[in-house]
């Protein structure tokens, strides 16, 4: 029991670090100044993400890019345009099959972002359900669910992923299954603890006194009060899903050619690393930037909705 | 002020749609005999008796106070009385019915008869619901019970402007929020109101107002009240009967005036002596 | 206090009640408290065993999910008779429940089955590869603590300054970089371009530098963030001001009183992260061709060697549960408020 508690507290603290300067602002001025500051930071973090998403969706339609699958074996491993020997027809160079890295980066971004979004949804959905159920019902349901969460977290997740993929082959649905399997438990753990605090709020007792059923209280009151936390967790999960996808694709077990994702591009860049760093460097950079933005956004949202900090 | 309020509700108090048949309204609304409730401590996992052999009865229209310092088991007792918390062992009858013998559906049907007003008004309101939508939800839950009054009139009863209907809890002051909580309790036409330290979370300046409102509305609605407080002066001003609790046990009980002028138990005596202006009040 | 410290370690009921300052209202007899504590320890160990059982069962189910191993081994052209013979040899002709019980018995006795690929005892192979992975995890964790903790403390003591922002950004960046990509970039920079360090294989201490650096980044970021969060809480406590008021040097206040109180969550996360690192090792070992458990797991998966995959998963689960228990013991040893 306490092993669970220990890790839960640890991650609760770690999940909600105060962003720099926020505390001081709260101290200095009450009112809604910090709230507004957080709202601005949420805006400034989502804006580039939305820009990236719009770019990868719209850019292929403009006809400015090469066909990402078009091979040009006469021009393999061409360096980026700014380097000597590079040409502006391939701004970020080409890979070993002469395919345009920029076009592939945009095309791969579509799939990677899609996997991030769907992967987060499939993890958050069941995770929230189970977490709310355990946190609200307590009793034996909670005991059982907590045990299963513990067990799930005790399994080395990459191995689960690998085992599932090894047995079922790699495809998009299997990838989502793996993301759901590996992502639900941390989410369930957090929603469980938040649901437990909401459950202890007095308005729940008041509603019960008014004759409200438990199902109604959960659906109409507990879940809406968790919504902020769930959105924040979901945002962080997008980053995790992108990282997991890239790791699996890198090991050849996620997205495989001819499909393009950033992870798959990394895999194809590994064996030419010493001759053409750009093939692997750009998709890795893209992953890092997107995941960093997503993590920053998730952090900002989580602090924003942290029930412990919002109570007063 | 109080006059207009009483007139305002006199018209509505004739009918009691929620009254269950069979109890005739003559017996005690709440009857607790030898109640024992044990909690398990979080850290040490030892059992400890929060309520230890408490007996009390509340008649129709009566206001009974329970006084004690924090940790004396007052709140546990209150939650047991509503059927919302742990019920422990011993007699626990609400409107003549044994709370423990009820099935969950029957219990839910009985619950609107008891409404609770808590210490922290903001914790008692869902932060995501405006006053109006909160009331709408209550009306949806108990359509017949709550049809006797509309939202505007209800808010007027608790002396709140109708504009506040569209506010969210964080836009209300503590006093306003507590009035909303009282309104939410009143709309159910309960037979018993359990008020658990209803004023101690409020600014001193609004405490008296809220208290007066609680007393007036309880009287006009004809409900009984179980009033939990650590503040003896408040209990004295509002209750007819009082029970003094200390470490889970009732050490003294009786009519308010008797307990306050002639306390028998040393603990009660200490409490009364510690009241501000106690001497002066006693002489009056 | 010393009695309390020994109790969880020994795993047996303590002899006498301690003189805790817990409120002693209606406290039971002293012997009751000792029995209570023994019960609690039993409950915790029991809970850990249940967790382990669930994890091991999931691993078993995954093994069954991976399809018919006979076609993997014998190829698609094998005759039905050959398949039957192999099934009998592997014990797959038994009812599922018998297989499951046999599998549990094996785990208890330390027998994790035989690899389809190498015809060797899985336990033995894991034992052979483990030292390499431990080297990597140990060096990575050491580096993570040595960098992460000072970084977190630095950020917490200069909260709101550019130091804080820089450290926090660095930590967040560390959690956003794909580990294997970082590995590739390190190889590119230090092995290919600068030719300072070897790019792969193992052997000398120099071989350890890049993989350990790669391994360290994620836990380092995690530790730095957690240290900052807990430290900034602790530094706001009144006793810190009191210590300052007594005229203690800032460094002493920060490290002895501040970090002393923040150390427990940090230590917890260090132990738990060690478990996570074991599975993080897969990608890093792949990038650096490091002959550890991760490589073994990858080989097993590529060959669909399900007994070996299962064995590694079970081994990982046992390690993780043991580390969790270690966290409990550490809490009991360090936190004077607990128990």
Structure description:
The complex is a heterotrimer of chains A (312), B (284) and C (339). Chain A is mainly α. Chain A has twelve helices and no strands. In chain A, 72% of the residues lie in helices and 0% in strands. The longest helix of chain A has 37 residues, at 101-137. Chain A is elongated, with a radius of gyration of 23 Å. The two termini of chain A are 30 Å apart. Chain B is 37% helix and 23% strand. A six-stranded mixed β-sheet of chain B has the order 6-7-8-3-9-10, with helices on both faces. In chain B, α8 links the parallel β7 (192-196) and β8 (224-229). Chain B has a domain at 60-83 and 103-273: Rossmann fold, CATH 3.40.50. Chain B is an alpha/beta fold and 284 residues long. Chain C has two domains: 46-109, no CATH class; 128-338, MetI-like fold (Orthogonal Bundle). In chain C, α12 (293-302) packs antiparallel against α13 (306-334). Mean pLDDT of chain C is 76; it is low at 1-30. Classes of the chains: A mainly alpha (312), B alpha/beta (284), C mainly alpha (339). Chains B and C meet through loops of B and α2 of C.
Distance between the ends of chain B: 27 Å
- CATH topology type of the domain at 54-60 and 108-310 in chain A: MetI-like fold
In angstroms, what is the radius of gyration of chain B? Answer: 19 Å
Secondary-structure-based class of chain A equals: mainly alpha
Report strand order across the widest sheet of chain B: 6-7-8-3-9-10
Oligomer: heterotrimer
Share of helical residues of chain B:
25-40%
Percent of residues in β-strands of chain B: 15-25%
Query: In one word, what is the shape of chain B?
Result: globular
Contiguous helical run count of chain A: 12
Kindly report the name of the CATH homologous superfamily of the domain at 60-83 and 103-273 in chain B. P-loop containing nucleotide triphosphate hydrolases
